[in-house]
Amino acid sequence: SQQGEEDPQALSIQEGENATMNCSYKTSINNLQWYRQNSGRGLVHLILIRSNEREKHSGRLRVTLDTSKKSSSLLITASRAADTASYFCATDAGGGADGLTFGKGTHLIIQP
Amino acid sequence: EAGVVQSPRYKIIEKKQPVAFWCNPISGHNTLYWYRQNLGQGPELLIRYENEEAVDDSQLPKDRFSAERLKGVDSTLKIQPAELGDSAVYLCASSLFRGVETQYFGPGTRLLVL
What we know:
The complex is a heterodimer of chains A (112) and B (114).
Chain A lengths: L4 E3 L2 E5 L4 E6 L6 E7 L5 E8 L4 E4 L2 E6 L4 E6 L8 E8 L8 E2 L3 E6 L1
Parallel strand pairs in A: 2-11
Antiparallel strand pairs in A: 1-3, 3-8, 4-5, 4-9, 6-7, 7-8, 9-10, 9-11
Chain B lengths: L4 E3 L2 E4 L5 E6 L6 E7 L6 E7 L2 E4 L8 E4 L6 E5 L8 E8 L8 E2 L3 E5 L1
Parallel strand pairs in B: 2-11
Antiparallel strand pairs in B: 1-3, 3-8, 4-5, 4-9, 5-6, 7-8, 9-10, 9-11
């Protein structure tokens, strides 16, 4: 079953603009991760935020986590054509002991 | 460092036929996962191995699916017999050991059952 629910399902923006996608989940978590999947390929880990953290940065990525609302957001600044991909949030309730529970993903299209 | 290797990349079979997928995790990674990803969905965990032991196979449809990781390194996932609804991408992932959160995914095997 899917734990996370990404919003929006699809997003199309111009190159150079910022892209924001959101994730909501249902149960308590140990950490939340964001993955990227390019067409026809496996998933690539982008960033991990722990349940006791509120915000984390990595390059052009900014992730926030609000455990009271059971939600997270991923911001990609200064988007590039190469950022076109599907983005998934994944929750880990067991601290790495269990498999990840993924949402349905946001399909991001960056138009040149 | 080589990533997670999966083969074949694509497989087309007729329903009721058997099929097998192979995965070789990153060298030294003790934990191995098999996920299934249906079109337009996120991956869903099928089974998790710690070395050669299957420690979580609650989501594996055991009537037709089986998996093994005999020497605690590479793994095989089998479907016998395949059904139309098994068409999906089968992803393998590995992590260093239990408690390390980041998983590394292979490119997946895209299965089409006709």
